[in-house]
Design brief:
single chain, about 20% strand, disordered N terminus
């Protein structure tokens, strides 16, 4: 028994000396020390402390396990206490670098993360973190991200060739519709574009990303199962899409399909190695494809807790890791009721509030919180603009007051648009001079401008025969008062806008305006039923969405005037000018940028002089973060504010 006790004592001493040696030689190898001291007592819980008090509205949880092994490890600090009482107690505390984590509040949860699934803002916001590009749309220009460059006719990466179309051969007509050629063989133009991937691209599981993966994306998009995809229209008008080598893919359009955006006809890659055994229909319904897809961006998904949050970690295979990107270690998307998002930002439960919340309706609260230093909102003007349509060809109105361009121009000079912006948007926007934003590369800075000048407006009206002849403060002509109706939708913002327009036109130039509010259906039902579509108004106030920008001139083509032959036309003013039509149509069809620019400048100059519609102000795109968030740059045309998530960081 004495010998056995001595042996036990000897073994314990050896173990203690080994532990001391490990600590001295490598004091940061906490895992090895912990294995030597099995009875060590932790000084911190293994469960990380919660950073938010938000309680999810749903108790359903879906935990998703990635197919890769996470390279991030966190070791719990501990206090080591040896069992030999004759030795002093040694205490070691490990310090772990703080996690640079961004928590984003989304008002809605995405239904899918499949790149060829149904699109939504929420999906795009998350995809911006796991898919970098492949092509960004920033400040109304396309920018290659994982491609070396965008193919153009100018740089030789794209070509325009003449091909023969035989009877029953498919082609695309001038309206963009796919047809079967019914005559004898004929010659048509066909676009070809070659896309070259950057070197060294990897999927988030470490496997190579190749041109064949982009071809796989095309194969998915042309299947009927992916009909909700943003790429279905392009896939239908694609004659072939082929990987020429591991980094080059070639797109060939159907004859006649000469869309000026041909340089973006690249299909986002999908890993054939990971998902090639699935059919497109299976992929649309597959849990992993829809909830934890592979990507090539700065982050990869760890888990999705249904109704609560979506957690992402840094992607160790990101192609910009050599630049030290991304700065963040983790991104968490929380799904929070929209009426709680601002409060969560103020109390620190969220670092950023996404754009799926109606921040435009919270500007007053945002400005107060900004003054208090609790939030840091960003405001940019983007491609939605409120405008005042003039009815040049009224269908059921007794007089066409606004058919006279002098009267339309006078109305523009009589309105103080900046005063409207100051009252409705706190001065955060500006009056447009064209239907294209000034940041757009096709914008014409030399258009006619209508600065607030009621004296000039009155002079134009007088020259057209409109004056206050009877002293009642309203202008008239031949005993008939210039009295206009203004139709718009009934909501708080447009109520204020319409009231300001009516008051300004009355006070500044003696024009009588009667404001009437209607539902969307009453205003915009298909011709001839809608009050606006059927041109049964004098003035109509609403907005146009102009995300692409370069297409906007078609809003005023004479061929877009609603009629029995074209009931879905969008030229509600009834404006018709052959010179404008020629310039706009040439701009829409131009494949060379310089020619497109020339025609768009001409179309904008004609539009601003004729003024069939008066742009009032640009709507706002708003992003809201906590003050210590750095690097998030709100862009007027990007799909979400997370287009450069790799450069965002949370400052200490």
């Amino acid at each position: 028994m004495i010998l056995g006790g001595a042996a036990i004592l000897f073994i314990c001493c050896c173990l203690f000396l080994m532990a001391v040696y490990v600590v001295i030689t490598d004091p940061f190898d906490w895992d090895l020390t912990a294995r030597l001291f099995a009875t060590a007592t932790p000084v911190a819980s293994a469960t990380p402390a919660k950073t938010s008090t938000y309680t999810p509205t749903s108790t359903r949880t879906r935990t998703l396990t990635p197919t890769y092994t996470s390279t991030l490890t966190r070791t719990v600090p501990f206090t080591a206490t040896p069992t030999h009482t004759a030795q002093p107690t040694l205490t070691y505390t490990a310090t772990t670098p703080p996690v640079n984590r961004l928590t984003v509040c989304l008002a809605s949860e995405p239904s899918t993360l499949f790149v060829y699934g149904e699109s939504s803002y929420e999906r795009n916001a998350v995809l911006d973190t796991i898919l970098d590009g492949p092509i960004d749309y920033r400040t109304y220009q396309y920018v290659p991200v994982i491609l070396q460059e965008l193919p153009t006719l100018e740089n030789g990466r794209a070509t325009l060739q003449e091909v023969t179309v035989y009877k029953n051969g498919r082609y695309v007509d001038e309206n963009g519709d796919i047809r079967g050629w019914s005559g004898s063989e004929t010659k048509m133009e066909q676009l070809v574009a070659n896309f070259r991937l950057k070197e060294g691209l990897l999927w988030s599981d470490g496997t190579p990303l190749t041109a064949d993966d982009s071809q796989f994306g095309f194969e998915i998009s042309r299947d009927s199962a992916a009909s909700a995809s943003d790429y279905t229209y392009l896939a239908e008008r694609t004659a072939s899409y082929t990987a020429l080598d591991s980094r080059t893919v070639q797109w060939v359009g159907l004859p006649g399909y000469t869309d000026p955006r041909y340089s973006t006809n690249f299909f986002p890659p999908v890993s054939r190695q990971a998902y090639g055994s699935l059919s497109p229909e299976q992929m649309v319904n597959d849990q992993q494809v829809n909830t934890i897809p592979l990507g090539w961006g700065p982050f990869r998904i760890v888990e999705w807790n249904l109704g609560e949050n979506l957690i992402l970690e840094r992607n160790p295979f990101y192609f910009r890791m050599g630049e030290g990107l991304p700065y963040l270690d983790e991104v968490i998307f929380r799904f929070v009721p929209d009426d709680q998002i601002l409060a969560e930002l103020i109390n620190g439960g969220c670092d950023a509030g996404a754009q799926d919340f109606n921040w435009e309706g919270q500007i007053e609260s945002l400005r107060a919180s900004e003054v208090a230093g609790t939030v840091a909102p960003q405001y940019v003007k983007h491609g939605y603009f409120e405008h005042l349509d003039f009815n040049l060809q009224p269908v059921s109105r007794p007089f066409a007051f606004l058919a006279d361009v002098s009267v339309r121009q006078a109305v523009a000079y009589c309105l103080d648009r900046q005063a409207i912006i100051d009252e409705v948007w706190y001065g955060l926007s500006s009056p447009p001079n064209s239907f294209i934003p000034p940041e757009h590369p096709l914008y014409n800075p030399e258009v006619t401008r209508y600065e607030f000048n009621p004296q000039r407006g009155l002079a134009l009206l007088k020259a057209a025969g409109w004056e206050d002849h009877n002293g009642d403060q309203y202008i008239d002509q031949n005993g008939r008062q210039l009295s206009l109706s203004l139709y718009t939708r009934n909501n708080l913002m447009r109520d204020r806008i319409a009231s300001l327009i009516a008051r300004q036109l009355s006070d500044n130039c003696g024009i009588s305006v009667t404001v009437e509010f209607f539902t969307h259906e009453e205003l915009f039902s298909t011709f001839p039923d809608g009050l606006v579509t059927g041109r049964q108004f004098d003035l109509a106030e609403f907005y146009w969405s102009t995300t692409e920008g370069w297409q906007n001139c078609d809003l005023f083509l004479s061929g877009q005037i609603p009629s029995d032959e074209n009931p879905s036309g969008v030229n509600y003013s009834g404006y018709a000018n052959t010179d404008y039509d020629t310039a706009c149509e040439a701009g829409l069809k131009s494949l060379y940028f310089t020619k497109r620019l020339e025609n768009y400048h001409r179309a904008q100059a004609i539009y601003s002089a004729d003024l069939p519609s008066l742009p009032l102000f640009w709507r706002l795109k708003i992003a809201v973060t906590r003050p210590l968030i750095s690097g998030l740059v709100l862009d007027p045309s990007a799909a979400s504010e997370f287009w450069n998530i790799e450069q965002v960081q949370v400052l200490p």
